Amino acid sequence: MNLIIDTRTDAGKRSFYQRLSELPPGRYSVRINQYAKRRSTDQNARYWMILTFISDQVLDENGKQYSPETWHNFFKAKFLGKDTMIVDGDLILVEKTSTKLTVMEFMDYMMQIEAWSVEHGVHFFDDLGVA
Hints:
Distance between the termini: 47 Å
Order of helices and strands: HHHEEH
Number of strands: 2
Largest sheet: 2 strands, antiparallel
CATH topology of the domain at 41-128: NinB fold
Strand content: 5-15%
Number of helices: 4
Shape: elongated
Oligomer: single chain
Strand order of the largest sheet: 1-2
CATH superfamily of the domain at 41-128: NinB
Radius of gyration: 21 Å
CATH class of the domain at 41-128: Mainly Alpha
């Protein structure tokens, strides 16, 4: 069970206690983490705008231009890494997703992409609030 509890109110605390009382008898392991909001829609819009700037301005060594979606996959692999799975004896690398990053994690991720972009001559314009 994954449960988000708001303990800022008495009603939230009562709801939590109610959920606990509904559990069948037994031993449980409980992990409590402070809630961290996932990346925002504004962050996501800004991210895709950055990827579009990169797509418009960066070519590979052969002069090929790539789509924002391709750059998205490139940066996920470069900055988020990959998970390794072994299925039926086969080693499989699976890209990590950016959709589950928290607001702060996504901000750090975008800063890495922006730093990479500057190193590769990308110019951002007023749409990003950067000149």
